[in-house]
Design goal:
Jelly Rolls; single chain; three-stranded antiparallel sheet; mainly beta; about 130 residues
């Protein structure tokens, strides 16, 4: 059995500008070492400062996503289509989560400093 020990944040991949992405397990093209490569699961650990927000992220038909609040207050909006009617979900208590379908676009904002664990997976591969 192979064992790989480390820190999710310290070992996360980086954007071209050098900023950390938070993704520490995922597709081989983004992961430098084989123990953290997976074509079917991606895992991200991110400490979002208050006010940190994303632009709209398009739906991806190959993946489902679940984000779990570790600490803080975090808002995620989901919708579909270019003129989407967005619905807001607020994660307030540790353990609050949002699981969304592959047909949903999303965007997010840290209402307070927040730590989020996000897992993306290919449901057609992992689940019967």
């Amino acid at each position: 059995m192979a064992i790989h020990y480390g820190n999710a944040w310290e070992q996360s991949t980086r954007f071209p500008d050098g900023a950390k992405t938070g993704w520490f397990l995922g597709t081989p093209e983004y992961m430098p070492d084989p123990p953290r490569q997976s074509g079917n699961v991606q895992i991200k650990w991110y400490c979002h400062p208050e006010g940190h927000e994303s632009p709209e992220k398009p739906a991806d038909p190959d993946w489902k996503t679940i984000s779990v609040l570790i600490e803080g207050i975090f808002s995620i909006w989901c919708g579909h289509g270019a003129a989407a009617a967005w619905k807001q979900y607020i994660l307030k208590e540790p353990g609050d989560y949002l699981l969304w379908d592959t047909t949903e676009s999303h965007k997010w904002k840290a209402i307070k400093n927040s730590v989020i664990l996000t897992v993306r997976y290919r449901p057609d591969v992992l689940l019967p």
